[in-house]
């Protein structure tokens, strides 16, 4: 079952995320109905033995109080169609019997066709819902344009984004920041917000932030700490060890709310942002934000770092998990190539264990770039 990163199954009435022993692809959390990239044709049954502690959390070493489970997973024509969890470690003959039962079950073409049609229908419904949301957003943008041009709008949708973010900034200053940060000059704080937003995805330079906002360095540090505490800004720390003496030690600044970031830097429509100088930085920020949320929303600390040496060779993100380093690049292109991962080999010098790498891009499918690097569609996040 080595093709899985993580698998969502139900054990004793609770949904449990199981990590397998080795990873083929990263950033996937498979569940029934998921399409499995790289799966073999036909119907296959995979098996793994997992250990859970008394709280239902997966552990990797069997102890006196751990529960042992045998997990069977059925992949049919590239789709995760079924699984079975048995609360014990089975003998070889029992495993073979169970695998045959599951394979025979899903070799029934009528059963498989009914399941695939159900999954397809559910995905189509989700797509229709997404199209509706996109259409609604485009309608908001168009009506906002009409308002700014002084035209009358007969029906205004629930939200005007420019008005929303303008009010948000004012509320942020007047209700939340003034007392906490002792902001005496609101215009200076807005300048500081704009300066921070304009530097999303860049190395933190506190002196430049202070200079652009015309404030003291200590004030800039205090305000930046407040932005961090409120979740507006995230500082991505560099990865380095005793071996990597030539690496940059400064963190990178990310302004996580990309809508607010675009508003503050005056990219007010998707079209102008797409064609603008900050489109790459906004894309990088959005991707990082989505990855961070996948950890934070599960109550986990994100083991995220970036790499950059003094020769300007950089990797956008390194994820550390189970002692392995997974390098990632973020590229706003629909046609990534292996050059995007040209710096991944630098990690080999760190004398650590490496997992597979990925290039998160606008490509619409998972494709191998090298034997250890795949494209990862941004839609998969």
What does this protein structure show overall?
The protein is an alpha/beta fold and about 375 residues long. The chain has a domain of about 100 residues. Strand 12 and strand 13 form a beta hairpin.
Strand content: 15-25%
Low-confidence segments, given as residue ranges, are 21-27
Total beta-strand segments: 16
Radius of gyration, in angstroms, nearest whole number: 25 Å
Q: In percent, how helical is the residue content?
A: 25-40%
How many distinct helices? 9
Alpha-beta content class: alpha/beta
Major sheet characteristics = 6 strands, mixed
Write down the overall geometry.
elongated
Strand and helix layout:
Elements: E1 6-11, E2 14-19, E3 29-30, E4 43-52, E5 58-59, E6 67-76, E7 79-86, H1 92-106, H2 109-148, H3 161-182, H4 186-198, E8 202-203, H5 206-213, H6 217-229, E9 233-236, E10 252-255, H7 258-264, H8 270-275, H9 279-296, E11 304-308, E12 314-321, E13 324-330, E14 353-354, E15 357-361, E16 373-377
Describe the structure concisely for a colleague.
The chain is an alpha/beta fold. Helices cover 37% and strands 23% of the residues. The chain has a domain at 6-107.
Keywords:
elongated, alpha/beta, six-stranded mixed β-sheet, single chain, 381 residues
